[in-house]
From TrEMBL:
It holds the Pfam family DUF6698. It comes from the Eukaryota. This is Uncharacterized protein. InterPro entries: DUF6698.
Amino acid sequence: MPASATSAKWVLLWKAFQSKTHFADAALHMQGAWLGHVVNAALPVKCLLSVVLHLFQDNSTCLEDQNAVEAELDSSSDKKQQLYEIFETLCDQIPGLEDTTDWSLVCSRLEKGKDSARTEDNHALKIALPNWKLDGKEWDPPLNAKTKDDCGLSHPVCAKLLAPISVKWDNQEERNNFRIHYNPLITETQHWPAFMYLGYEGDIQDLAKGLLRSEILAARTLLYPPTFANKDDKPDHRSNRRTKADVYGVKNITPSFLAYVAVAVRFTLSLESVFLLRGGLFNYERFYNDIMAYLNDPIFKPNTDELIEWWNTSSGLFIQEHTDPADEPESMLARLRQQAKARGQQAGDING
């Protein structure tokens, strides 16, 4: 977005902030989920809003002038500018957000929406995991969708997927050291687990090879109902049910969403029953931030740009484009358009 357009928008946001009117908060919960899925799952909403409120409250004079706003935005750190952009997007997606007088309420409901979506996703993956096939094979022994008691190191396949790639799984001594003697520790976030790699095996000499390309990361359960979450199925638009991809605004795979899924899969494979982003047995915040750092670091860009592109094409296993019903030849909308075109009407004249 051009700087002049951005600064003009912030002048309007400032004036709305000054007006102190109330707004309808029905979209807060959904946008909290959007923040976690698409933007940054580890970003506290309080941190985002405090930066914006600081700008509003401490720069009241300059925010009345568009040129001064441009100077203020240009002089901000990259981190602050990212937060400003997130807030602008939230204002676009939540009508009346900038007019609120109760930022504490906004913060709590956005955070609750983010946390609720995470809880829902973790539950969905726990239910779906026993039905997945890895390399075409059933879980042996079978997993129980009702409990996680048989996950983690107690399950040979879960243990293999959670093990660092430095553990040679075909070597019984190394396998036992990991499962029985906790060497290396399963809680060490600096060792990325095998489930993140294509074929569930990594190369110590080439750590980027196959990284974040495993089939288990294709957790479309997070985006689609069970009826077509399987990778061979496609969304059925004869149903009026909206997918999570539609609700959350997930139109393509981003680094943030890929990191989000890696965290969700790691938790699902583990024995942990309660997810804690920070302060738990495993440091999921560090794990998430390290993946984000890898995906966004310029030094890795040639690899990571190609990786994200792969996930967003037919080579990837994740997103299936949400089809426009008008593009389905047998849909009512498509047939109406065909008849309108036959009568010489333009698409925009159907209602005329």
